[in-house]
């Protein structure tokens, strides 16, 4: 009796790929069904997935950190697969993320048309976006690429808060957020192709707990788009030092010499934010740093950044981070407790 074909999972990599993503995905996926029985019962089980690394030409290369990669195939050797994962492919937030991978873009369209689930991790979503498969769809990537998606892929609804975006799952498209989102992705893929129980067992082996709170607690306000709009640039510089002032948008409008409607339009064009959203983002960033390191009460933190009403502060903060100020402080204080004994050790 012929053995049942294993689902084929293909990992697409390039020199711009992180070794941690590529080899992390490979190690966890290839272990599905095999490692847990070995660790619990002393007898390895059967590997349940056929996992292969591919690149444009199939030739050995070095990825980020000068780590060697030996692909098992070129993309032209793979016409069909159950799932194709576009690993992260680092791109500066100021680069034009198009035209770098023409062969990969064409191949991804082909394998998706042939029935494959197409998945991306972190900056791999930029490559997937270039295929057009994400047009008029929801997608995620690392939070730092939000502005890049708005500038270069305006047809895509960017889900800044998502670690794993499953909104387009029915059309065989899934996108994952930051680099470590591959943890969540492996659990999803193993559950999809091997079953829920195997996914749980594999997560136990690798201590994978997922990012249930999403990306928002980790995101940082990135440097706004470069602007040649003098009045707006001046207001950005001013508000960076005066974000806690009362009625900040009114004061920026007055400073600019523009009427409110024109100011709002030009401010959004220059920064990607409505003026009040920009102020709130600045305030939340300052509050996050204070909650991470200071001993001030949560209400005092809110007052220090411009919110005399504690309820208003909590509401704005949770909208920006997905967590209450108290929950945020608790989460990142745990990290500081791990790091604190080593602070200054290498200075």
From TrEMBL:
This is Helix-turn-helix domain-containing protein. CDD domains: GATase1_AraC_2. PROSITE patterns: HTH_ARAC_FAMILY_2. Residues 233-331 form the HTH araC/xylS-type domain. GO terms for molecular function: DNA-binding transcription factor activity; sequence-specific DNA binding. Keywords: Transcription, Transcription regulation. PANTHER family: ARAC-FAMILY TRANSCRIPTIONAL REGULATOR, TRANSCRIPTIONAL REGULATORY PROTEIN.
